[in-house]
Structure formats: C-alpha cells, structure tokens
Write a structure and sequence with these properties.
282 residues, alpha/beta, two-stranded antiparallel ribbon, 13% strand, globular, NAD(P)_OxRdtase_dom_sf, NADP, AKR, NADP_OxRdtase_dom, oxidoreductase
Amino acid sequence: MKVAKSLQDTITLHNGQSMPQLGLGVYKMTDEIEANFAIQSALKIGYRLIDTASLYENEQVVGAAVKESDVSREEIFITSKVWNSDQGYDHTLRAFEESLKKLQTDYMDLYLIHWPGKDSQYKDTWRALERLYNEGTVKAIGVCNFQVHHLKELMASSNEKPVINQVENHPMLTQEELRTYCRENDIVIEAWAPIARNQLANEPVLTHLARKHGKSVSQVILRWHLQNGTVIIPKSVNRDRIRENSEIFDFELSQEEMNRISGLNKDERLGPNPDEFFKDFK
C-alpha cells in the first residue's frame, strides 16, 4: 500500500473505493458545541474522514457539522457502526436507517460491525450489511475488533469480505498476527486508540525519535502507523492538537526506526479483549 502524502490523499480499498488514511475520531464527543467545533476545525484544516458510531451518541452532531461546513458531502468520508444491542438482520437494517437520519445523509461511505459479540450473531448482521452494500446505500462495509478466528468464520459464510478491520492498535499492541492475516486477505487495518491514549508520552525510544525529527511523540507514533499502511483516526477536541495530528506528512521514519517502535509491543490492551467483551461494556 502506498503511504499517503497529504490529508487529501487516499488509499484504495479492495472493492475499489477510496478512503483517506488519516481522519478524525469522535468517540466520547458528547458536548454538541465542542464536538461541532472540533469537526468544523478538522474539515477546515483538511480532514476528509470522520469516524463515528451509534454508541457515541453524536451522529446528529456529525451530520449537522458536515451540513454547516464549506466542504461538500461528496468530499467527506463518513463512517459509522452498528452497536451490539442492534445486531441481527432486521435490527441492523433499522439501526442503519436511524444512523442515516441522524447523519442527515442518504448514504454512508463505510458501515462497520462494532464488536463481534459472544456468539455468531454477527453473521446475520453481516448479511444486512451486504444487502445495504448491494443496494448502494453503503459504499463499503467492514468490521471492528474482529480477531483472526472471527474473520475466518465470517468469510466462510459471506459473499463480501470486509474492506476494513478497525481494532485497537498502537506500539504497545502491534497485533502482528492479525495484521498479517488482514494483509494476506486484502483487509485494511484501521487503528483506534492509535497513540495509546497518550500513555507513551514519556517512552524513551519515542521521545528520542521525537527530538531527532523535531516532532511530538504523538506525531512519531502516527507516522509509524502511516508507514505501516494503517488508517488512523486520532480523537481530539482541541484545534491545535487536531492540526498537530495532521502534520505527519513532512518527515519519514527509517526501517530501523520503524522496527524500534514495533519492538515496544507488550501485547497490552487499553480496551477490552474482543473474545471477552459482550453487550454490557460502554
């Protein structure tokens, strides 16, 4: 996969759709004024990917911000997700319509299953996503937090394979086995918590590289993701931080530096394990 060289650069998903490699995540942005300001700021800076979910309870804010912006809807890549309690064929179709209504749009660029859940109900959910994709109201479909065994089970009984697997991914959790499997099956990895919720701000390897390149630790980590071919959606409501997160296209990490960052892996999760997480976690 080629590495994006600007905020407007895109990667090509296996179904031919284009998707920006860097976007804005809006998890936990529940203050409407604050969230609207963050989204408007991101769009003015040049972001074109906004990642939300029904769980985040801010789809209506995303929709309003996109409507109010000077950027046309066609230029903005909007992602949302179906939550665990809405899984199943009919429930998913209803949840999608509700999300579309809140987003004030007649199509979605990417729709994802938020978690695999404790059984194989995601297969029925996926059938609903395939229908939406075939009808054209979704341009691409994918999953979140799927382990290799979930992906194998899903693809064994589906017509479409996911274009994206959005998972927790950062230098403390590099997910090499999962990344390899997804790469072999042309599924793009998208990282949530890409900078490990700032827990690596004082990590010696990263602070050294930050000083060397004249960048922040967050920028070094985001650049590592970029060169790994990962789609990244760092979340911030601060305009300066949103801008800082976008300023990662003017330097490059060597392969040795990339390896040093990958070597920080501890298989340490900040969020729940997909095999243990069911409906009751928020």
